[in-house]
C-alpha cells in the first residue's frame, strides 16, 4: 500500500499472517553476503598424498651388488621428494612413479612394486609432509593462526579451530567464514558449535576466518533501548528484536504501531507483489492482536533495518498539554513583572 500523496516515496505494508508469505519472498536487504554452509559428510581416517607434498623414502636392500646402496650399506635415504603437479615423484632406475591420490601405504606399495624388477629384495618405507594442497589456513580469529597439515581425510573444522587454540576471546557474536576454491561460506559460531551436522570435513587449501558478525539493526522510539543492536544469531524475528530492545514502554509506547523501516534497491522494485512497489517500505505490526503477534514471530528483521516503537496517542496528547501548561506558566510570570 503506497503512501497517500501525489508522488509517493514509500510504501506502508501491514504485517499479518496473510502477508508474511508474500514478504518472505522479497529480497534480503542490508546484507552483502548471506549465511550458507556446505553439507557435512564423513571421510576416511587415512591421509592421501597430493601434489606439493614432500615424500621421504627409505629403501632397504640386502643384495651385495645393489644398484642403490654402496658396499656394506643396507639402506638408502631419499628425502625431500616433492610430488609434482602431475602427481608423480622420481625414483632412480624406475623413473616417475604416480602416487598422488593414494594413501601413504598404497604409495609405498606402488614404489616397492616398481623396484622389485631391479631389486627383488627391496623393501620401502615412506613418510610424507603435507604441502599446500594438503593443508589448511587458519587466517584470523583464533589464538594461533597459521598453516596446519591435514592429519587425515576426516579432519573437521572444529578440530582445526581447536588446534589453532580456539576462537579468540572478546569477539562479539563471532561468525566463521570458510573459503574453498572459488566459493565462500559463512555460519554463526554458535550454530557451528551447537549443530554436529555443521562440523564439516576440511579439504586441502581451505581457509578459515573467524570474525565478528557485523550485522545490526537500529532500535528507536518508545522502547527500553535506543541504540544500534548487533545480531545475536543468524536470523532475528520482529518479536525477538522487540525483546532485544528491552520491550516496549508500558506508558509511552503504542503496541499497535511497531514500525520496521527498510530500504530496498531499485532492482528489487516490482509491480506484481514479488517485491516491494517502492524502494522505501514501512512495515507496520499491531502487537495487540493474536494475528499481529504470530506475524511478528515470523517476520524476519534484515540487517540495517530500523525498528521503531511509536509513542501512544495519549502520551503525545499529554506532551502537548504539558507544553501548553509550561507556556501558560511562563506567560503568567512575564505578565506579573
From TrEMBL:
Source organism of the structure: Pseudooceanicola nanhaiensis
Domain Polysaccharide export protein N-terminal span(s) in chain numbering: 45-125
Keyword set includes Membrane: yes
Alphabetical keyword list: Cell outer membrane, Ion transport, Lipoprotein, Membrane, Palmitate, Polysaccharide transport, Porin, Signal, Sugar transport, Transmembrane, Transmembrane beta strand, Transport
Family stated for the protein in its record: Belongs to the BexD/CtrA/VexA family.
Protein name as annotated: Polysaccharide biosynthesis protein
Recorded coiled-coil stretches: none
Localization: Cell outer membrane
Gene Ontology MF annotations: polysaccharide transmembrane transporter activity; porin activity
GO biological process annotation, one example: monoatomic ion transport
PANTHER family attached to this UniProt entry: POLYSACCHARIDE EXPORT PROTEIN GFCE-RELATED
UniProt xrefs under Pfam families: Poly_export, SLBB_2
Gene Ontology cellular component terms for the protein in this record: cell outer membrane; pore complex
Keyword Membrane annotated: yes
Domain SLBB: start-end pairs: 142-210
Membrane topology: Multi-pass membrane protein
Amino acid at each position: 500500500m503506497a503512501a497517500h500523496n501525489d508522488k509517493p516515496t514509500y510504501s506502508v505494508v501491514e504485517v499479518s499472517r496473510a502477508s508474511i508469505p508474500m514478504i518472505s519472498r522479497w529480497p534480503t536487504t542490508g546484507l552483502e553476503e548471506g549465511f550458507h554452509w556446505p553439507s557435512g559428510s564423513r571421510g576416511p581416517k587415512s591421509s592421501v598424498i597430493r601434489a606439493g607434498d614432500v615424500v621421504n623414502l627409505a629403501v632397504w636392500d640386502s643384495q651385495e651388488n645393489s644398484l642403490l646402496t654402496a658396499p656394506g650399506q643396507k639402506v638408502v635415504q631419499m628425502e625431500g621428494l616433492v610430488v609434482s603437479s602431475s602427481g608423480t615423484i622420481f625414483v632412480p632406475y624406475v623413473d616417475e612413479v604416480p602416487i598422488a591420490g593414494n594413501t601413504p601405504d598404497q604409495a609405498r606399495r606402488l614404489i616397492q612394486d616398481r623396484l622389485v624388477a631391479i631389486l627383488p629384495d627391496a623393501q620401502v618405507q615412506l613418510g610424507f609432509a603435507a604441502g599446500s594442497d594438503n593443508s589448511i589456513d587458519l587466517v584470523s580469529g583464533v589464538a594461533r593462526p597459521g598453516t596446519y597439515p591435514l592429519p587425515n581425510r576426516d579432519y573437521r573444522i572444529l578440530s582445526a579451530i581447536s588446534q589453532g587454540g580456539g576462537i579468540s576471546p572478546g569477539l562479539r557474536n563471532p561468525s566463521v567464514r570458510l573459503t574453498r576454491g572459488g566459493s565462500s561460506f559463512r555460519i554463526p559460531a554458535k550454530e557451528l558449535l551447537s549443530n554436529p551436522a555443521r562440523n564439516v570435513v576440511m579439504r586441502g587449501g581451505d581457509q578459515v576466518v573467524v570474525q565478528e558478525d557485523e550485522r545490526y539493526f537500529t532500535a528507536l522510539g518508545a522502547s527500553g533501548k535506543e541504540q544500534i543492536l548487533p545480531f545475536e544469531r543468524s536470523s532475528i524475528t520482529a518479536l525477538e528484536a522487540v525483546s532485544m530492545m528491552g520491550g516496549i514502554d508500558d506508558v509511552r509506547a503504542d503496541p499497535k504501531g511497531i514500525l520496521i523501516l527498510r530500504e530496498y534497491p531499485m532492482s528489487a522494485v516490482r509491480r506484481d507483489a514479488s517485491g516491494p512497489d517502492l524502494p522505501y517500505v514501512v512495515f507496520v505490526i499491531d502487537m495487540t492482536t493474536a494475528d499481529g503477534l504470530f506475524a511478528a514471530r515470523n517476520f524476519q528483521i534484515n540487517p540495517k533495518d530500523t525498528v521503531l516503537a511509536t509513542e501512544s496517542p495519549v502520551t503525545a496528547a499529554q506532551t502537548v498539554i504539558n507544553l501548553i501548561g509550561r507556556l501558560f506558566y511562563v506567560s503568567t510570570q512575564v505578565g506579573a513583572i
